[in-house]
# Entry
Amino acid sequence: MIEQLKIRQLTEAREENLSPHAVKSRFSRGRARPEEPDPIRTAFQRDRDRIIHCKSFRRLKHKTQVFIAPTGDHYVTRLTHTLEVSQIARTIARALNLNEDLTEAISLGHDLGHTPFGHWGEDTLNELYSEGFRHNEQSLRIVELLEKDGAGLNLTWEVRDGIVNHSKSDVAVLGKDWGEVGTLEGEIVKISDMVAYINHDIGDAVRAGILTESDLPLEAIKVLGNSHSVRINTMVSDIIASSWEARICDIMSKKPTIKMSPPVLSAANTLRDFLFERVYTPSTGRADAENARNVVIFLYRYFNQYGDKLPAEYRRHADTTERGVADYIAGMTDQYA
# Structure
């Protein structure tokens, strides 16, 4: 019998060698519905696998990151973004001796609630839906309710906390309103999300002809580097060095945080602000953005007017037609919409 091999228990025992500030899987706050432990996988490994095998995760491959229906094969999708966040976050977590499995699970689930058409789709749905729409909250709704026809994935508290608290897109990185996450592993995912999108969105913008490398703010490039790989390495290395107390700090000391050095943080925020100004915000005149907006508006109005046309699974799990319509549209891929 596999239980007699005590595979999970051996993994949990190895976790005792992690940083005092790491979350140990056997000390998780648990699930909304208690379950028997898996004989092979820890609680966080089980969460990771549930996310990878869910339908919402598969749909990420056909959801826009920034550029809608690009003609090239090398543009970032919501799925490849998710994988890049996971790689960056796991590297940082491993270096700081934190829980890599928890970090990976949060990373893989953080963007499940994104709409089709990237930021344009989310902004439009946020304008239309009376309660407002935020993709991080939708990601939580997916794992708690919408997946498995209302059963949800029943993930641990730590993974759900990291998913819902990963996004603060309208504030400066590590700024006043950056917000808190309940675990250091969740903090790592939050900052890794920024590292990933800042860098791959530059590449896509150059590929699309919106930017050239020479357009990038010189003061930021001098600090971070003049290529994609160098910039990521600079930022990841700086996060690890600046957050080193998370690995060596005694548990009785003040809780450490995941951070960046002032020069690198300033450069990262400069680059981020530049992208918002030149790439993310200016939808006026972009035919793809206008088309995406019109599609979301049409779908929202149509299904609110003809609620009986809404698929039964979305009617079953929503208190109002409007809520069900928001769930349905948010779950669509670009091509399905």
Observations:
- The mean pLDDT is 93.
- Residues 2-283 form a domain with the Hypothetical protein af1432 fold (CATH 1.10.3210.10).
